[in-house]
Amino acid sequence: MATKSALIPVFLLPVALAVACSDDETQPQPKVFNFALTTANETPPCTDAGVNATGNATVTIPVDNSSVMVNVTYSGLSGPVTAGHIHSGGAAAPGPVVLPFEPPLDSPFSKTLTAADYAPGTGTPPDFPSFVTALKAGGAGYVNLHTDACKPGEIRGEVQ
User: Using one digit for the tens of pLDDT, what is the confidence trace for 32-42?
Assistant: First the structure.
């Protein structure tokens, strides 16, 4: 009988591990978007953009939706970045700025944006929580960087 009682805990160990692992997997995770910033994504593309202008962005929205974290790297632009932001809107047209990036904007840069940074406008979600919900669904915003040569934007990438 001592042998049988010793086997019971060993037999249950895989079940206990499976339950423990499944609990970790069901925990909510941040929403992460990784995407390229290109001249071709600008609407309309800037004819004065740097020939090798390119970049990458990561947008992370934590589980509690309290912020939007942005990490950007870029190179080959026509000049220094004069402005950068997250716009509301889809890929087909320019949209209004809703989350501006404060300087410095040298590559690479990271920004954490909150409700205090949100600037709603005509045609945008009315508040930060509504915008974050739309952004998490994908296709509701984009990141772009501006230069003196490309005031409307030199490189852009859709958050999707």
Answer: 999 999 999 99
